[in-house]
Write a structure and sequence with these properties.
The chain is an alpha/beta fold and about 575 residues long. Helices cover about 40% and strands about 20% of the residues. The chain has a 5-stranded parallel sheet with strand order 3-2-4-5-6, sandwiched between helices. Helix 9 (about 205-220) runs antiparallel to helix 10 (about 235-240) and helix 12 (about 270-275) packs across helix 15 (about 315-350).
């Protein structure tokens, strides 16, 4: 039986309410703490005990930051990094072309600049060089640099790192490691196979930040003050959210405090990017994931690969504004390319079938910079692991996205190890691969077999999990502000969803091409506005637009809308069902 009796909503989902155990925990917390019921429900779903509530609502680095030395090779990496600074060796930073790579590079470049040093930034071209270190680039960097620091890449780069003759290589990464490590001076990675995995939720920028914590600690032991690390947390927060790292443990403190730093508007690159993106309120995880992140990524996807890292690391306001404008332009271009590939990929995948353990599509000339985004869209539409591949001649580069509980990165790594892929790897929720045209069908069939063993073929339409019921009159700005204290919300820490039962729609208006704005109330005077993004692409939008006075259960996430300085509650509508 579904929550509120909903077994098949307007989007085809069953609604699942809080368990009896969660309800009891929420009631106990409300009695013990006096916190609002809706906030207690949110905390109870996260497994927070009443006595832990106050600490959970105020996450701090002091309480949550791990000792960097719990990661293997960390002390060695920091020592080598400081040695290069003291001996004035030339340092190169080799970074991935996404937000995590750009943020990680910017962390190092900013820290070094504050120590009076500069470094060479190298980010490979996505199309010409592909992901991670390559032998020609590493050979060239090694000729002119004593130390090469690889960030957000390098863990599987045995050959390229071996090619860096004459230089030491330090790897600061978080991608799934193989059975052997590359011949680097140090490999710091919480997802090395010989690590405990307790810090496996860190993105690369989190690993880099921990290395800088250890570097500062070693400097203090020599009576030298290192740069202010707290001022760098805006970069760590951006990377953590944009890389969809789980918002658990220290990541909560990184993002919470990083947003506070970002609100001070001290980093020229992020200020310029926020301005071109039209951000008109205090930064939130939504802004990081959907406004800033895609624009930083746009350079690596379809433009010049180093634009994002240069934007995030510059201290020149004019340069920041110029790069931000270029990235905004590239992001608009990326959207057009993505829409075209998404339409072709969905058509192909539908013809192949959407009910197997793997949904995949491949096409000639599909831009490698958008295949990951398209894979994410297919995953959201099908609730299946997805892979989308763009071919250029006989070789294709693809990207995959997974669903909760299915480890895609390990499966792709296995297929690569078996020789059906040129290369491949990643982590549980996202991975990349390179495959020849001759091996395409066999590789996808084998990947599907491995995913089926994890249960990917048994997944049905994704249930909608709800935290409880709210009435329109109870949804106040003050309540939303209280609920937000349980954040930040994101991966592995979904914002709470509430159902508004048996409400009447009073206003409906299309917004843009496919969005729907509605007003609803309880018939007693209380009224709330809601926005349903993309609703007109499916049956929910049509049904709500043509409601004919019918009453509905509405479900979604509450947020504060700011218009002309006035705050009001808005429901980000995700689903609806007829109230029988």
């Amino acid at each position: 039986m579904g929550y509120l009796g909903v077994t098949h909503s307007l989007t085809g989902r069953r609604w699942i309410g809080p368990s009896v155990e969660t309800e009891r925990l929420a009631e106990a917390m409300e009695q013990a703490t006096g916190l609002p019921s809706a906030l207690c429900r949110t905390l109870a779903r996260r497994g927070v005990a009443p006595e832990e509530a106050s600490g959970f609502l105020a996450p701090t680095l002091r309480d949550l930051l791990p000792d960097p030395l719990v990661l293997k090779d960390m002390g060695r990496a920091a020592e080598r990094f400081l040695k290069a600074i003291k001996s004035r060796e030339k340092i190169a930073v080799f970074a991935d072309y996404d937000v995590d790579g750009g943020s990680s590079a910017a962390l190092l470049l900013t820290w070094l600049r504050q120590m009076g040093r500069e470094a060479t930034l190298y980010i490979p071209d996505r199309i010409d060089e592909g992901y991670g270190p390559n032998e020609p680039a590493m050979e060239a960097l090694a000729r002119d640099h004593g130390l090469i620091v690889c960030v957000d890449c390098g863990t599987l780069s045995h050959g390229p790192i071996a090619a860096a003759k004459g230089a030491d290589v330090v790897v600061l990464d978080h991608h799934l490691g193989g059975e052997t490590l590359p011949p680097a001076y140090a490999v710091v990675n919480p997802n090395r196979q010989d690590e405990t995995g307790e810090l496996g939720h860190l993105c690369a920028a989190g690993v880099v930040f921990l290395m800088l914590v250890e570097a500062n600690r070693q400097l203090r032991a020599e009576s030298v003050n290192g740069p202010n690390l707290m001022a760098l947390l805006d970069l760590v927060a951006l990377a953590t959210v944009a890389d969809v790292a789980p918002l658990i443990g220290v990541n909560r403190a990184f993002v919470r405090q990083g947003l506070t730093v970002m609100a001070q508007r001290q980093r020229p690159g992020l200020v310029a990017l926020a301005d071109v993106a039209g951000m008109d309120s205090a930064p939130s995880t939504y802004h990081l994931g959907f406004l800033l992140g895609p624009r930083v990524n746009a350079g690596g996807r379809i433009g010049k690969a180093d634009l994002g890292a240069r934007l995030l690391s510059t201290d020149n306001q004019l340069e920041a504004q110029t790069i931000a404008a270029k990235l905004d332009e590239l992001n608009r271009e990326r959207r057009d390319i993505e829409a075209n590939v998404r339409e072709l990929a969905l058509e192909q995948a539908t013809q192949r079938g959407l009910d197997g353990p793997l949904v995949w599509a491949a096409g000639e000339g599909w831009h490698p910079g958008v295949v990951g985004i398209v894979a994410a869209r297919l995953k959201e539409a099908t609730n299946r692991p997805t892979v989308v591949i763009g071919f250029d001649g006989d070789e294709g580069k693809g990207s995959g996205r997974s669903v909760s509980g299915i480890d895609l990165g390990a499966s792709i790594h296995r297929v690569a190890h078996e020789g059906l892929l040129v290369k491949g790897g990643g982590h549980k929720m996202a991975a990349g691969l390179t495959v020849t045209r001759d091996n395409l069908e066999a590789a996808m069939e084998r990947l599907g077999e491995l995913l089926a063993k994890q249960g990917a073929g048994d997944l049905g339409p994704q249930d909608l999990t709800l935290d409880g019921i709210l009435m329109p009159g109870a949804a106040t700005v003050e309540l939303v502000q209280e609920i937000e204290k349980a954040g930040p919300f994101g991966a592995s820490a979904a914002a709470p969803r509430f159902a508004f039962p048996d409400v009447q729609i009073s206003f409906v208006k299309r917004v843009g091409a496919n969005h729907l704005k509605i007003g609803f109330g309880d018939g007693l005077g209380a009224r709330i506005d809601a926005i349903a993004f993309g609703a007109m692409d499916g049956p929910m939008g049509q049904m709500l637009e043509q409601h004919n006075g019918a009453r509905f259960h509405l479900a979604g996430r509450l947020e504060i809308n700011i218009w002309q300085g006035r705050q009001s509650v808005q429901l980000r509508l995700e689903d609806a069902a007829r109230a029988e």
